[in-house]
Design a protein that fits this description.
Two copies of one chain form a homodimer.
Chain A (H helix, E strand, L loop, with lengths): L4 E6 L3 H12 L1 H8 L3 E7 L13 E3 L3 H5 L5 E4 L6 H11 L3 E4 L2 H17 L4 E2 L10 H8 L5 E7 L2 H13 L3 H11 L7 H4 L2 H15 L9 E2 L7 H9 L2 E12 L2 E12 L11 E8 L3 E8 L3 H17 L31 E2 L1 E8 L4 H11 L4 E6 L8 E8 L2 E2 H12 L4 E10 L5
Parallel strand pairs in A: 1-2, 1-4, 2-3, 4-5, 5-6, 8-10, 10-18
Antiparallel strand pairs in A: 7-9, 7-11, 9-10, 11-12, 13-17, 14-16, 14-18, 15-16
Helix pairs in contact in A: 1-12, 2-12, 4-5, 5-10, 7-8, 13-14
The structure holds NADP nicotinamide-adenine-dinucleotide phosphate (NAP) (2 copies).
The site of one NADP nicotinamide-adenine-dinucleotide phosphate (NAP) has 22 residues of chain B, from helix 1.
Chain lengths: 436, 436
Amino acid sequence: MSPPLKIGICGLGTVGSGTFNLLHENADLLKARAGVSLDVVHVGARRDNPACDLSGAQVSRDIFAVAADPEVAVVVELIGGTTVARELVEAAIRAGKHVVTANKALIAEHGNALFALAVEHSVQLRYEAAIAGGIPIVKALREGLSGNRIEWLAGIINGTTNFILTEMRDKGRDFADVLAEAQALGYAEADPTFDVEGVDAAHKLVILASLAFGMPLKFESVYTEGITRLQPQDVAYAEELGYVIKHLGIARQTNQGVELRVHPTLIPRQRLLANVDGVRNAVLIEGNAVGPTLYCGAGAGDRPTASAVLADLVDLGRATGSADPSQLPALGVASGNLQDLPVLAMEDVESPWYLRMEARDKPGVMSGLTSLFSEQGISIEALIQKAPLEGQTLVSVIVVTNQARQGSVKDAVRAIEGLDSIDGDVTCIRVEQLDG
Amino acid sequence: MSPPLKIGICGLGTVGSGTFNLLHENADLLKARAGVSLDVVHVGARRDNPACDLSGAQVSRDIFAVAADPEVAVVVELIGGTTVARELVEAAIRAGKHVVTANKALIAEHGNALFALAVEHSVQLRYEAAIAGGIPIVKALREGLSGNRIEWLAGIINGTTNFILTEMRDKGRDFADVLAEAQALGYAEADPTFDVEGVDAAHKLVILASLAFGMPLKFESVYTEGITRLQPQDVAYAEELGYVIKHLGIARQTNQGVELRVHPTLIPRQRLLANVDGVRNAVLIEGNAVGPTLYCGAGAGDRPTASAVLADLVDLGRATGSADPSQLPALGVASGNLQDLPVLAMEDVESPWYLRMEARDKPGVMSGLTSLFSEQGISIEALIQKAPLEGQTLVSVIVVTNQARQGSVKDAVRAIEGLDSIDGDVTCIRVEQLDG
Ligand SMILES: NC(=O)c1ccc[n+]([C@@H]2O[C@H](COP(=O)([O-])OP(=O)(O)OC[C@H]3O[C@@H](n4cnc5c(N)ncnc54)[C@H](OP(=O)(O)O)[C@@H]3O)[C@@H](O)[C@H]2O)c1
Ligand SMILES: NC(=O)c1ccc[n+]([C@@H]2O[C@H](COP(=O)([O-])OP(=O)(O)OC[C@H]3O[C@@H](n4cnc5c(N)ncnc54)[C@H](OP(=O)(O)O)[C@@H]3O)[C@@H](O)[C@H]2O)c1
């Protein structure tokens, strides 16, 4: 058997400690599968973690000592963020070490430069754990579906928002109320902005899109909308209409450009994706050969995320001695062959829409509405007027449109909001049929 | 760019023609991803297929000419069966060629010898297409989940039986009736025995189990039960109880041995797997790090199956120049390290059971039944006595047990069948909670 793969782990938080401990717990089978022993020889952590028995490994309080250690062959970056982590990854690559990371922010925002640096130094930069936790979705796109032109993909790629939406639907609760509980349960961070505003999902989406379409990472081009403004009544009306609201990352190849968008979305209840509840993640991918395939599992947590880190380490162990990175390009195609596809402007993105407006219950309202839609060339799939509540003069009117350009929908909405018979703003949520 | 990967395709039937045509349709992206051009230089087919334009490739009526062609680097075996296909694969390996196949029967029944031969000749024998069509499930188990001890897996791995069961449930139809339609629609073969008796699923299950547990293929040890005897009333009663009947392949690691079994199974309706309908396939895998992950998609068809063949070809293209097969062992661990795990006898397998019996509606029947169960140490989860139909003296009694040894259940069933108050045989179907 070949000499061990010598690993340095930086960061001993949730994922770092999970990885460290699983490397020991599953040591025998990892060795059998990798063909070499996976040995942690150096840990970089500002302080010990009581969950980890560090005897046997060298421990440095300065994580850069790990990147500089001549014995270390792979640096596992699990500190997070885009500042120190970036410096660490660059230092490790320059020192000729492979890097494994779970850091989606780092890859989404600085991946292009980091992948190029890795090629320059003939090392691999692996990031299976950065998207959808333990689901091997990077491998599925980069290798398992490599025979396909990927048409589109849609994913539940943030467990916190999916947990909140599931609770809102099942119990009719408010966003703020459920968020507070999610924080208490430890599903949501103390500062949940990245999750509920969709930034975390946008980080993951852009990586998925680059893998799927063979294009450079364009994080700045992702349209990002969170779930903070979602009302319980829309969740309930969606359900009445046969839909479930999910917070999706969607990427699609069209003749005009690539769609990159993260937003709440109504999807038909009978889709498997609509039934992925709680903190689970799932990604649905449409390929021109295979059709739709779905991948579902735990999108976060110490052990699921560590599972993905270990998969990258086993791959590196198996490839020991053939470390030419040109053989497995980070984004599936060699960086020189990535295509700089244009990103479609959101106003040109087409989808059906769910619109809710509060109307004064008087004659002519409906015909006024429908003529505004037809002026924009938008056809209506369903129009529902709810009965006014006791003592109320306003009634909710819900419109589901057919496929329509966002620009036209927004024009129609502006005109509707100008009507005397309409009170306040129109609530607008995209719909996707996801029917491959 | 390196020189092309030169491919020989043997067999131009459903999968062969799909593979040939997709290699052309997706040629540019395959080249970008593989880093080399994937060129079909030789086709072996007894006759032309009007769906394929063979100009540009050499065509031989004798498939063995492809295996002998010094120009060919990879032989793609798509003729099926375990006789000529076996000779062809052996000839190709002995000639120093990599082999890609979709042939589950061949791998399940002769894989141990073929993988050893491939190692001996330093070539790869790849078979992603052999299981679950286009779902990259081999890659998920062998690489994506390599950090996990796999506890169990359960899969819908035969599209024909899943289509039949879906129709039986949705429309209350008979097995024979739906089978005839599936044959007319082309979902089922003219001779559907391999599908409906579970042999095809057993072929796939044993490969999944070997990948999951790192053990040699033991096709002869798989317990195999088809769906031919399933009654519409059991499908309906299962539904009343909150279950769906699926034909599953199940593999599980226990302290006593490995379970390898294919049979109809009641699973809770709310599981995603219970909602995988029609010809789709899905595999649920429980790993000790990641927990449960699910993989779903098209399990058959020309293009989905070709998608998996192409993935193997792209992998081979990417690895050009590093063809040492020890780096990616066929079953995930090097053959010398496979563990010869014992297979658990079916009588020792534990699961809950669904039992239906026809009882004469008279006093004391129920207490007689329940005492027979408790004599065998079997506890009862639910017991339902249906109202007798107009003019009938027999009533259906349905029992769902808790976890019980199959041996004890069968003993109890024999005793029940001996009771005067019971008419005919007891219908016995296993239940799985699949709750990881
Ligand atoms: N948690 C998940 O479920 C999950 C899932 C997928 C991906 N990820 C990604 O995995 C990475 C790690 O996440 P995590 O949840 O494990 O975070 P965490 O629990 O906060 O752990 C981060 C660790 O990094 C250390 N660290 C941070 N900055 C450092 C610095 N400048 N120098 C030295 N050590 C430093 C921290 O040390 P101190 O304790 O001393 O501050 C801590 O041990 C992030 O990129 C995250 O996005 C996490
Ligand atoms: N169809 C699917 O959806 C699917 C899915 C997964 C895996 N697979 C597997 O893929 C393989 C191929 O299946 P398929 O559906 O493509 O079968 P198919 O349509 O029956 O095609 C088989 C092809 O092999 C040729 N062939 C058979 N025996 C031959 C021989 N002795 N010499 C030369 N040519 C021979 C046949 O030629 P003739 O036409 O001259 O007889 C035909 O072109 C099988 O192992 C199957 O289990 C199929």
